[in-house]
Amino acid sequence: MKVAVTGAAGFVGTNLVNLLVEQGNEVVAIDRAQPENETRPQVTWLNANILEEQQLEEAFQGVEVVYHLVAMITLAHHDELAWRINTEGVRNVAEAALAAGVRRMVHCSSIHSFDQYACGGNINEESPRSTGDDLPVYDRSKFAGEQELRAVIEKGLDAVVCNPTAVYGPVDKAPLSRVNGILRDAARGRVPAFVDGGFDFVDVRDVAAGLVLAGEKGRTGENYLLTGQFLPMVQICRMAARLNGRRGPLFAVPLSVLSAIVPIAEPICKIFNSDVITKASVGALESSPHVDGNKAQSELGYTPRDTDTTVRDLVSHFVTSGQLQR
Question: Which end of the chain has fewer CB atoms surrounding its CB within 10 Å, N or C?
Fold first, then answer.
């Protein structure tokens, strides 16, 4: 089967392309950054801009399934480019897929399209969505992107939406994803402490498998939450550290302490073009919602692996790829 993947050179994209090739598919890999060492005959790389619908329509000719992964992740409150990519970009991909006669589109959205601050500590597919002006631009844009997709579904496009939680695990390369970067620092013994709070962490390989399952079994217009396991950040950092002979964080800093310094730290971070400490990043740790993945498991047959396996594989990947020394 001929399929297309936007954002194919990214973290999730790399793992999805690997899986699709393993399953015997012909892959049109779309990304503005292309790997230099790609030699697989099943993969054709194209440089296309998701803000240019005509380029996408040409790329989708003869394609049966489009997996849309391109997104701009930021913890900033306002970012015009992130808004365009996460909304207009989704609409362009969907319109191009419809025009090219693509059989199905799978949109990789995010758990952040659900309002984690208004969910009461638990999120499922029926939870409140990220619509408030007080929410970070990433959260608002991911839900707005889903709305853009649904408008094209109304025109006849067959599409489904997947919402992964905090993605981590192998295979990843520099610059590392946010969570993987933290865990590599922990494995190096460079995270003596961390703040309270946790997330639902999902292996990137499970996300790739979930996207393929959604393409095969998902119901048109439905959302599927791709989950892993909820863990405190301190605990998962300690796991990574101990696998590399380090002790890991000794204690967790209360979130109240971090919240108190946000008004001072956030403007300083902006000067250095960083979004590490923002109202959004602290808010995500404070909410720490538990995410219900039963729908994906029952309807798609989605089965995530355990955290121990992922962290062990990730640390091994860091070592074998030269990103970490034992």
Answer: C
279 and 262 Cβ atoms separated by less than 8 Å:
yes
Question: Which tens digits make up the pLDDT trace of 74-95?
Answer: 888 889 999 999 999 999 999 9
SS3 26: strand
Asked whether the bond before 106 is cis by omega within 30 degrees of 0, the reply is no
Label the pairing between strands 229-232 and 198-203.
Answer: antiparallel
CATH classification at residue 60: 3.40.50.720
The pLDDT, as a whole number, for residue 286 is 64
Q: What is the dihedral of CA 81, 85, 87, 90, to 10 degrees?
A: 170
SS3 label, residue 145 = helix
**What is the band of 47 on the pLDDT scale with cuts at 50, 70, 90?**
very high
Q: 111 lies in which domain range? A: 2-168+201-227+290-296
Confidence of residue 263 (pLDDT cuts 50, 70, 90): low
Total-model pTM: 0.93
